[in-house]
């Protein structure tokens, strides 16, 4: 059980790293963009930040979940 939980935690942390990289890249593009393009970049940044927050929340839940709660929690991660 713990192996599955640890593997899931590693996967979520990798997703978080991926979201962070995408956010950094998009923020750099937004800084270089013109006024009209910045609006689109800002919306995409908000979406990515929301997804990042969701992944962070799942990581926190997983780290705090006991073995009994893990079964319930893993169904919500898919």
Query: What's the overall average pLDDT, rounded?
Result: 84
Helix fraction bin: over 70%
Record field, number of beta strands: 0
What kind of oligomer do you see? single chain
Largest sheet: none
Unreliable stretches: none
SSE arrangement, N to C:
HHH
Number of domains: 1
Q: Helix segment count?
A: 3
Question: How far apart are the first and last residues' alpha carbons, in Å?
Answer: 17 Å
Radius of gyration over alpha carbons?
16 Å
Gross morphology: elongated
Strand content: under 5%
Structural class: mainly alpha
Summarize this structure as a short list of keywords or feature phrases:
single chain; 78 residues
Summarize the entry for a quick read.
With 78 residues, the protein is mostly helical.
Please provide a written account of the structure.
The chain is mainly α. It has one domain. 92% of the residues lie in helices and 0% in strands. Helix 1 packs antiparallel against helix 2. The protein is elongated and about 50 Å long. The chain starts with a helix and ends with a helix. The model has no long low-confidence stretch (mean pLDDT 84).
SSE diagram, text form:
Elements: H1 2-32, H2 35-64, H3 67-77
Helix pairs in contact: 1-2
